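Late entry, written up from scratch paper. The run itself happened at the end of the previous shift, but nothing got recorded in the book at the time, so transcribing now.
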Amino acid sequence: MIIAAQPHQYAAAFDKPAKDSWDCWSPQRVVAIDGSAPNLPPSGPYFFSSTGLRQAYRCYPDTYGAFVTPVVPSANDANHFEVPEVACVPVPSRLYFEPPSAQRPLSDLRVAVKDVIDLKGVRTSNCCRAYDTLYGPKARTAPCLQALLDLGAIVVGKTKTVQFASGAHPIDFFDVQCSFNPRGDGYQSPSMSSVGGASATAGYEWLDFAIGTDTFGSVSFPAAAAGLFSLRPTWGIQDLDGIIAVSSMLDTVGFFTRSIEVACRVSKAWLGNKVPTDPSARPSKLLWPKDLFPMDNHVYEQAMETFVDRLAKFMKTIARIQLYDCYHNGRPFRDDYRAEFGAQPFVDPVIAYKWRLGEKLTRGEYDTAVEEMKVFDEFMLEDVMSTQSRPLLVLPVGLDSTSYRDQYFGSAEESGSQVQGYGFSSLVFPPLVGMPTFVIPIGQYPYRSRVSGQEEFLPMCVTITGSKGEDFATLDLMQDFLESSPDYKTAVLTGKEAFL
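Output as recorded:
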């Protein structure tokens, strides 16, 4: 059945392309209605059923195993969602949605949601069978996600995560299979935590962006592994209610996308007036701590140096906190599960190891770590990232060599110790200081795959970090830079290679 809304006329001539489409669709009925009539359904294809008119969805296969479950809005409540019983991801036509407007600037964008963020009517599984068994469908949507819905974004599904939004290697997944990284030979690690959103964005043209939590790299590193644009916003401006927490001192919610244009559009609509500083002012200084960039991959190293040099010319001129918080934030789940089933829940071994570490930390050790964080924060904001000088800090992100998803990193203790934030690296700057962090894909490098036996390519990325509240200024400057430079792209492709 096709509904054609035509004001004040009830007949239309078909040209040849329309006639060909008609023959292909073989509709049983066409209804022409007065487009000026009130309460009309949106124009587009419909199915007629015993419950009335139902919109048509196109079903896409989840080739890269990125989704926990697809979702569709309930028939009578657009803000209540259901899980369809289909082995695919149903996606509605963009024809049903109004063009972007000042009130709904994201109305034509499809988004996927990390499965630690609550969506009304749908379980938050946390990719943990015990967690999924214990808790039922959520009664409300997390405020940060509801804001996207109110802005017109179209939620199509929930994506995979490391349990409790933590760090783990693909081989450490037990309750669900880790999503596949579309880049290169298809068997490289998608990195940590927000893996499903990065895999889906890099793999599916029908998805515009994905949101995920970031504690100390859970958005930035998957973005680098998949060659995507991403933003970890200024800490403290996102409402974290309705989200499984790692650490309230470090957590925030960011996003992945394939283009700088969508990144700017989503950030300005979503963050809105939460960004405190003047977005019209531009950063004027570029900081490049070269001692943080030792690389064995000289192609990657040269690409970084070239990017920084050209950007400079264009411009002229953690572990204790997250371990303690993760253990104590997980206590209600452990207590609820034991009360319901009389046993402790199974979690992936790396998460169990992480909780053992957190359990051993005293409140005094935690408070000391928080004070040390404040000292570092003051040093960075006063002596390095002052809002008066408005600098940008260039940092490395991602790997400069292969990391196969079947690679064994040792026992849970050996593997888990690598992803808890021990030591001092470029990872600690943005989360410890709460600075906005933007990942930019700048190219790709070749490698010889032991999976395909041939030359493949993996993305190269760089992190641009601005001062607190400089989210929009940083994004706008980078958009202008990328659009003005013939050597860099403002968007990446889906599939094996981010660039042609």
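The two ends are 41 Å apart (CA to CA).
(Scratch paper discarded after transcription.)
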